[in-house]
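Example record

The entry below shows one chain as it appears in the dataset: sequence first, then structure tokens.
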Amino acid sequence: MSLEYAARQPAAINASDLLLQLAAELGLHASLRANATEEWEQVLQQASYVPVAYSQAMISYQAAYYSGQGTAWHDCSIVLFNDRQPCAVWPLSLASDAHAVRLCSSGEAILGPLFSRRLSLKTVKSLTAACHKLLAAAAPRLGCDWSMQEVFQDSLGLSEWYQRAVQVATTQSVRHDLFVDLRPDLNVIRGSFRKSYKPLISSGEKLWQVGICRDADGATWDEFRLLHLAVAGRATRSLQSWEAQFQSIAAGAAFLVYLREPQGRMVGAGLFHVTRDEGLYAVAAYDRSLFDKPLGHVVQYHAILEMKRRQLRWYRLGARCYASDQPAPSAKELSIADFKQGFASHVFPRIEVRPPASQA
């Protein structure tokens, strides 16, 4: 551990207290998520659209994942109140490693607060402005780096969060995310798939037995974890992170699509996180000796069927990288992105902005 890293640890310990103190000074009524989990869920129920990034299951998983990677992780997510009622949730974390201290949302650029649809536009603007001031005041006190992002939330136009951020930004970068609109009829969705995928799905369904794990089936989950270990050739993350995802399934916030050969051996599986409105492709593993067979195609299709059954609105397949991106993606990353795009109905921008150096 470097001396610089060790010196930063007290900032992580005091991050929550500092954020609450600064919030109070700015007239924000706030509580930590850890002390207001029911209020967090109440806001999600009242939001117009709930991305997976705002789910408590995802926040818990990210904490387990990054902690297992050697990052000092401090969840300081906040519930905001208006007229004594919970009105917004804001996923925030302070992450410290040997290289930097970052204020982030689940390891990425900071998301804006997610508001209850019951709030007036005037109140949303006022609270958003205060949240920007809170970040500008907290970052230098915590000695951390930070940036902000605008993500898809099934709405027209850019949010108040982004409009305020971009006015003072020094740099902007654009990434892209792949989505499937789940609202049309299934025949319409399937008709939009890449032409070559349709016969592959049909042949794969004849080859494999397809199962969906929707509850706490520990035996099936362990099969998936061990398949991932065998495919990767090593443990790529902690047992705590696997347990967090298993608990997400148990809580109804995720499901596993798995494939078995006729003899019963699991040959592939994919995990998908969900909220009321959105699904997210999280992780998959497939028997390397069967890569010439349609495995991922069948898992993706049945995940879409399950999301349709749950009446979700959008399925986020993940990032769509391009050769022109900086830093340049690897050939493997480009290949995976091309595979996922064969299922996507839409590509949406994800904009990241950086504040002036005086704030960051």
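Notes for this example: DSSP finds eleven helices and 15 strands in the chain. The longest strand covers residues 171-181.
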